[in-house]
Each structure stands twice: as C-alpha cells, then as structure tokens.
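Input.
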Amino acid sequence: MKIWMRKGKRRNEFETTVALPNENKTIASRNAEEIDEDPSHQGEGNGNNTTRKQNVKNTEEQNEDTIEEQNVETNENDETMRGRKRKRQSELWKQNLRKRRRQSDISGRRIQWFFDKKSPQFEDKRGRHVKRKISDESKDRIRNHINSFPRMDSHYCRSSVKRQYLDPCLSIAKMYELYVLTCNTTDVTPEKYHTYKNIFNFEFNLGFHTPKKDRCDHCEEYKSNKLINQVGEDLKMKYELHIAGKSNTKVERDNDRSSDKAVLCFDMENVITCPRANISNFFYKRKLNVFNLTGHFSLNKCAYNAIWPEHIAGRGANEISSALLKILEKVLEDFPSLETITLWSDSCIPQNRNSIVISALQHFMRSDRSYSLKSVEQKFSEPGHSSIQEVDCVHSHIEKALNLSEIFSPVSFLRILTKVRKRSMKVIQLQPEHFFDFQTASRTFKYNSVPFTKVKYLKLEVEKPLHVLYKVSFSDESFKEVSIVAQKYKKKQKTVVMPKVNMLTKSNLLSKEKVKDLKDMLKYMPLDDRKYYETVFKSYK
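Output.
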C-alpha cells in the first residue's frame, strides 16, 4: 500500500490519497478513468474522450519534465545534498503506518481485506514434511561408539562422584569426526552432528579431563538453600563455623608466608596419561597413568616433583607417604641445618590426613636421613578452599607445557619436565625400592585417638616419639597431646619396640586389557618410547 500526502495552505490541512500497491497509475490517469466511467459523461462523443485523454497525457509528461529539471537544478546548486540519504528506522515503520492510516481515514480492516483478496495466496505446507525417525539401530551405534572411549574417574571424591572423564585431547566435535570415519569404513550412513551431541549430553554423564578449580560443598549448599529461603539453624551454624575456619586458615597461611619459616607445600597433580598424541587410534585405547607429587619449598622457591608410573606403584596413602619422604630427603640435603619444617596440604583424608602419613613422618624423623630435624608441623587447608597456590602454579606450568607437545611414555614426560622452569624445578624419578608399607607399621600404635576428620594442625617431635600434638582449629591457644601407645603395652609395662617398615610388595598393577592396548599403540611411537614399554612388558608375560 502506498500513501501520498500533500500539505495544504493552512496548517494541519492535508489532502491524502491512498493507492494500493498494484496500482502504479498516476493521479491524473485515475481521474481520467473516473471521468470516463461517470454516467454523466457517457453521452459525449468519442472524439472528446480522445482529446481529453491526450491532454491528460501531455500534462503528465510536462509534470515529469518539470520535476526532473527541478531535481537537476537542486543537485547542482546544493552540493551538501549529494550522497546524503535518510537512515532507515525500522522500529518506526509500524508507528508511521498507523499515523498515515489515521490521517487518511482508512481502517485496518480494509487494508487487511485488500491483502487477503489481491495479494498472491500461498499454500499452507505445515505438517506435510517427510517423517524421519532415527532408528534404534543408529542410536545404538552412536552409544557403542561413545562407550568405546576409555574413561577415568574424578580426581576428587572418587567414591561418591559418578561423573567420568575422557581424554583431554577429545571433544564432541572430534568424537563425531571419528564416528563419521567409522561409519564410512563400514558403509553406514552417519547421523547428524546434533543427534550425536544430544545422545552424548543427555544419556551419558561424561566430561573431558581438564583441570578446574573445585567449588566448596559447604558454600554451595548454603547458597542453594538461601535462594529458596530454606536455611535452618543447623545449616547456618555449620556455615558460620566453616567461614570462621576459612578465615583462620588464611591468617595462619599468610603468617607462614611472611615469616622466614621453612614451609613445604605438597599436592598430587591430576593423573597424566601416556601416550598423549593426536592420533585417532589412541582415543580408543587404555593408557598408562603417571603420577606426580609436587612439593614447593619456601626458602629456595624450588619445586620438587616425585614421578612414578602406575606399573611401579599406585596412588594410595603408602605411595604418597613414600613420595613425600623422598621430597623431604631432597629438601634436607639442600638445607641440612633445618630443625623445624612446616608441611601444608589439602584436607584429603585418604591421602594426607591419616595415620599412615603420621607413621611415615615419625619413621623418617628417627632415621639418619633427617639430619638435624627435631620437629615436623603439618597444617591442613579448609575443605573446599585451597591454601597451596604455589603448587597449583607449578601444575599450571606443567599442563601448559603438555598441551604444546606430545608424550608417548614417562620418558617423554620427564623430558618435558626438564624444560619447565629450569632454574627452580627438580625431578625425582621414583623406583620400586622407594615405596614402603607404613600402613602395617601404623597398626602397632593407637592412632585412632587422634580425630583426623577434625584436626587442622599436627605436631611431631623427636623428643616425644610416642605422642602426637594436635589442634582442631588454628584459633586454639594450646595443643592437645595424646599417646599412641597401645593398651597392651601399658598393662604389661614393657618397652615399646618400634616396628620395622618393609618395602611395599609389588603386584601386577596393569590389567591384561591395558597391556594389550599399549602393545597395539607401539607402532605409532618413537623408538625410545618403544624400548621403555618393551622393558615393562617383560614382567607381564
């Protein structure tokens, strides 16, 4: 619909003419036709009609010539009009249309009637598309392909978290590319990407193994209940105690950083898998796990990395305690005159806060490797709030280096570690003879008198080998001291004999399926890495 508006002599007087879109005739032509159709003029001769139409045509041509001459003169005289064009304001189109409709006294129903009658009609094709349901066989093929990738458990809370993780080199897009290749080799038409993605997201609890900062369980529980106004007195008190413990831990950690105390922070890095390369065959195979316990010492700002693969030992409390003692031994070799050292770690009970670690530290203090060490303090972070950022920084550097290179075996991993922070990083390669069974030795003593689930501060002294001092909060003024001597020794009044700590017995830690997958990947590896795996396979025949 087109609307012509011509302003009159007086203000707010408009003469409006409305034309429909398919009427391209001028006003003069329409007037001529109206005159012809008027019954009062039907009696006139054909000669008069012809003359009248010719006059109208001449008038139109003169008007067009006059308008063109005016436009040419205006453009020549006013150079500012060149290239200037009014901006399109689509948000005002409906408003302007309503305004012109009111001024021309045309109802919206009349306009709608015109478009319904005069505009071309389009056939409604809704509901006439081809029905295409994805078959169950195609869905099962996608599920089987996703299940073909090996998985690993979460780094934290492995017993309670059901989410599993795939190789960090993978993504949904990469997995779909491999799925298409598999379908092409078997002459099967692959499904669309969105189908593969929906099945992955809604039918599997899988993620990609990327290091992330975990959020605190207590804080998240309080926030979620606060949003729905369901914070009870017990939850509020529990949250306030948690925040107070967090603040006290931060103050204690800052005091240790600002002083000249010998502080050693340690933590386990996320599991590193070998081989790790952008080869499609690797994504479907089980890989060798490599463990790294990292310690950071405050006096020399140096990082100590204790490395061992899973075919030598696992990552339980015995293995972590043995790796920690090896790091302590290296630190004391650099600083043999130390008398007191403070250990900082997270609050993971199975790894750091248990009787096995205490037994290992007491055994180390009685040995010749302790030099002049007289006391060891162990402090724990508030659960959910890490206070060992120095170790996290070292792990970040290692992860960045791994993302820029390919590793096929622990040999490749050690080669990369030597290039990360060359001046302030030392690598300790652990062997089977470095791991000891401290758990069996700890059963001789009564360590259950120490509340490991609540303790925040432990202290061990050489002068008190059968006592443990602890605090359940950093705000406590004094230590609580408990004896770890078993009741049977107290009754018989015998001299307590320290048990001998034996080496950790090694078993076949690699499954047959993993050994088979590693053998299948040998042909893609460099020669040095092949030799490493061949020596490992000799003990698994």
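The longest strand covers residues 288-297.
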